[in-house]
């Protein structure tokens, strides 16, 4: 008997997202409240005017309800299309701008389209990394960006946003086997109107990429007009070999409906005076983020509980040179079954708390060595779904582009230990 092909096409996924968008938890809750209020008002109306008003009242209530569903569908379409306007991920388009060939990397072979990425620090156990932090130095926006700030910020109308201070990567230098990394400060809103909306048409086709990152190479970090806050991308492997890959919500500020690394987050600072004294400070913030997003508690004492490996540093060409620290984490005492059980409970707890956290839509547990990059920038891999039914299958999904950079660093790391 021929084996059933369980591959899901990206086109089918888009259709599913369109149909199911209004039926996500938050949309169902709002629609239910809206419908309940209408029923209460309509019941009072019928009691007051009698059965003669029943037919008219039902028609009005049904009309209001269908209008609400229609608006939810409209909002879903807006969210799906928003990312494409803000930041283009088309290599053919970007290849005309960045003609320096070293940005293009392939994961499988020269036959795939590859992805654009600039490696700043490779995985190298022999290099020393020194951090220099200036918490009192805040990014100054270019006057033109200030002029169009509100207009560019409007690119994120369909996204979850909240402002806070971010860790800006100001410069990276290398000499005598020593990397020096310099930090300053920016804000998340500055990030939204620079890196994250770099291809948004401001006026008459004008974009920030066309103005400030027009090629043929990315501007050096110390010259860049982008916010360039530091992101953390981590692949977390459980004790049975499965790796956690979340899928973003439809209203995420970026990577809508895309899979990401186990952790794909900015460095969350505790306050304006929070100073980075070394890589271990970033690592501690990564541990806190793992707890917040996945409900996995890791203490500072690694011992035999888990290992964290710094894989390197790179810049995302798609978002105008946004930098990322890449990590690989192996947890020795948490398997897939226990994670699924804990994660489901964690999701319920977060919903009860009505948290403002930009929660993931679902989480996959995957075999990382099964990743295959397709020609349309999607990836094919073997997974089971942790947040709903546990279905083992081959899936084809689109990743955020930093996922591919993290996977490249992970493969380079594996080569050094095998």
Topology:
Layout: H1 10-20, H2 25-49, H3 54-86, H4 91-95, E1 104-105, E2 115-121, E3 128-138, H5 143-147, H6 149-153, E4 165-175, E5 178-187, H7 188-192, H8 208-212, E6 231-237, E7 243-247, E8 263-266, H9 279-294, E9 306-316, E10 322-331, H10 336-352, E11 362-366, E12 372-373, E13 379-385, E14 393-397, H11 401-417
Parallel strand pairs: 3-5, 6-10
Antiparallel strand pairs: 1-2, 2-9, 4-5, 6-8, 7-11, 9-10, 11-13, 12-13, 13-14
Helix pairs in contact: 1-3, 2-3
Give average pLDDT, whole number: 82
Strand content: 15-25%
Number of helices: 11
Number of strands: 14
Characterize this entry briefly:
Helices cover 34% and strands 23% of the residues.
Fold and architecture overview:
Residues 1-26 have low confidence and may be disordered. With 418 residues, this protein is of the alpha+beta class. The protein folds into two domains: 12-86; 91-417, no CATH class. The protein has helices at residues 10-20, 25-49, 54-86, 91-95, 143-147, 149-153, 188-192, 208-212, 279-294, 336-352, 401-417; strands spanning 104-105, 115-121, 128-138, 165-175, 178-187, 231-237, 243-247, 263-266, 306-316, 322-331, 362-366, 372-373, 379-385, 393-397. It has eleven helices and 14 strands. The protein is globular and about 90 Å long.
Comma- or semicolon-separated keywords:
five-stranded antiparallel β-sheet; 14 strands; 11 helices; alpha+beta; globular; single chain
